[in-house]
Design goal:
Layout: E1 2-3, H1 7-14, H2 18-33, E2 39-40, H3 43-52, E3 59-60, H4 74-83, E4 92-96, H5 105-117, E5 123-127, H6 133-142, E6 149-153, H7 158-167, E7 170-173, H8 182-188, E8 194-197, E9 213-215, H9 219-229, H10 233-246
Parallel strand pairs: 1-2, 2-3, 4-5, 4-7, 5-6, 7-8, 8-9
Amino acid sequence: LTYHTKYEYDIEKRVPTKWAKDFARRFILNNINSADEVWVTSNGSADSLRKLGYTGDYILMPNGCDMPRKNVDEKFIKEIKSKHKIPENVPVFIYAGRMIWYKNIKFVLEACKTLKQNGKDFRLIMLGFGADETAIKIRYKRLGISDKIIWVGKILDREIIQHYYAASDLLLFPSTFDTNGLVVREAASCATPALLIENSCAAEGIENNVTGFLCKENSESIANTLMQIMDNRKLLETVGKNAMEKIYIS
């Protein structure tokens, strides 16, 4: 059995009564205990296992990335920037993944509003789909940052997704829900670094300002960190290359 979802989040959010929550935990735990071998993707997912009451052994096996490590041809990067009318020398951020609020997307949008209020120009590519995408679009329009958002939506072609990573200067992934954060390795495959929440599962193994960037779990910290690094292209490139060499897993 592979355990790579923090089920306690969904149980707390979606199961209405205490007896039903207890039943759900027992149901999951019985399923886990029936396995001969249990794999987890991070230390954080192992902690989630323990919270459910699992006391057995497990094997830690991080996610591998199906994107090859490579320097994406500059022509593909230019095609993306031309397609979305991204000005030259403007910092480009990307969020890639499911469009659901518990990935802390709200903090990303609020941080972008702060950047705009401080006179910073940038673009945020939003790549993915999910249950909350309509609400997310309404939110960023109300925040007055529609001119900074590039909504790409659902893309399934892995090569094109990698091109979007390569066209971006920084992946924004403030999720504390994910147990590993495969998108961090995907971005690293083409030397794009990530901004992550310190002590999150996605940030396991990341050294601040060396193989990635770490901040607190709030919009103010995300905005402050971005303002410190977004115009430092040499730092972004160096950290991106370090990520490609040190945290990428095939």
